[in-house]
Amino acid sequence: MKLTFRWYGKNDPITLDKIRQIPLIRGVVTAVYDTPPGTVWSRESINDLVDSCHAKGLECEVIESVPVHEDIKLGLPSAKKYIENYKENIRRLGEVGVKCICYNFMPVFDWLRSDLETVQKDGANALSYDHARIMKMDPLKSELSLPGWDSSYTKEGLRELLKKYEKVGTEELWENLKKFLEEIIPVAEKAGIKMAIHPDDPPWPIFGLPRIITDYEGIKRFLSLVDSPANGITLCTGSLGVAQDNNLVDIIHLAKGRTPFVHIRNVKNSNEKDFEETAHPSEYGSLDIYEIAKALHDTGFDGYIRPDHGRMIWGEKGRYGYGLFDRALGATYIGGLFEAIEKGSKK
Ligand code: DNO
Questions:
Q1: Residue with CA nearest ligand 1 atom 6
Q2: Per the confidence metrics, is the pTM higher than 0.90?
Q3: What pLDDT, in 10s, does the model give residues 184-239?
Q4: Residues 6+ apart with CB under 8 A from 191
Q5: Which domain, by its residues, includes 252?
Q6: Least CB-packed of 47, 171, 223, 322 within 10 Å?
Q7: Which numbered atom of ligand 1 lies nearest the CA of 65?
Q8: Cβ(5)–Cβ(307) under 8 Å?
Q9: What span, in angstroms and rounded, lies between the C-alpha atoms of 310 and 328?
Q10: Residue 126 C-beta-side C-alpha neighbours within 13 Å
Q11: Per the residue annotation, which of 12, 102, 263, 274 is the catalytic one?
Q12: 279-309, pLDDT tens digit by residue?
């Protein structure tokens, strides 16, 4: 397993110089951010990204994300063009040594939280989700925006997009995902890249939009759409772990050999659909991170892991979920767990 750290490119206040000093980090997880979803990334930008990482002694083998254009998820005729662009990005990334691409198939919105600065007992600030509050929110009015969202929509653009989704239910979304995979997976195979779909966060429908990568059954169905090692998942513990019926160890066994990438974070579930993000170690949240690491080890996991969202601690201000300190602590915790499990298994 290789430990990695997310880097939002040259505008990220957490610079490569800082990342390279975090113990155990081998490489970064990053993307080209200078072009809208659906376009082909320029070779110049790709090379610049990879060269910047290498210049600091960091690998650049994981891209998160190559975003999927909404027309693909909607299954519109224009999807054809966007799928061709997607394939070209896969080829170009393969040429520079990228091994894994993380993406998601969530309509319109990526990850969602109701509160970005919940104060915890120890004074840290964390992201949290209160379902009742989310249900009362209107995305067309609310000013809430998260770092993972495409911020280029105007309210009018968003209204039109949401209208188009009125015709797309769960089954249509599955159908459009299948068509997309049938096109891109052979290209990924050739390029030496493993595609890793990110589960929906949170793993239930929001604002009336369908979400399908949410649980064991959904992942089982996903893996069977195109049965190839290049068609895999990103095991995001915090996304799947807030649905209390989800057993992460079972999911890890289900996706054995099909999990090139893992996001590790912990969450404290309060009500059925309410949760708060916590420090990474098991004792702070509802997830047993040791059991998760053990299951990954037992299933022969040999992909990339990154510590996911951290809280804001030590007075840090910055990109929600993506500060330096708590994520760095998470990284060393994860590295320690794996060292203990690996050495323990050899005794
Ligand atoms: C949130 C991230 C997601 C993820 C995308 C992958 O912090 O895990 O935004 O990058 O869903 O496409």
A1: 103
A2: yes
A3: 999 999 999 999 999 999 999 999 999 999 999 999 999 999 999 999 999 999 99
A4: 90, 91, 93, 94, 95
A5: 2-345
A6: 171
A7: 12
A8: yes
A9: 8
A10: 27
A11: 263
A12: 999 999 999 999 999 999 999 999 999 999 9
Pocket probe for ligand 1: among 29, 102, 116, 146, the residue whose CB has the most ligand atoms within 8 Å is: 102
Number of domains in the chain: 1
The CATH number assigned to the domain holding 177 equals: 3.20.20.150
Pocket flag, ligand 1, residue 103 (CB < 6 Å) = yes
Establish whether residue 30 lines the binding site of ligand 1, counting it when its CB lies within 6 angstroms of any ligand atom. Answer: no
* SS3 state at 276: strand
Question: Is residue 308 flagged as an active site residue?
Answer: yes
Taking the centre of ligand 1 as the mean of its atom positions, its distance from the CA of residue 270, in whole angstroms, is: 23
Give the separation between CA 293 and CA 338, rounded to whole angstroms.
7
Question: Is 54 part of the annotated catalytic residue set?
Answer: no
**From the candidates 60, 236, 274, 333, which is the catalytic residue?**
236
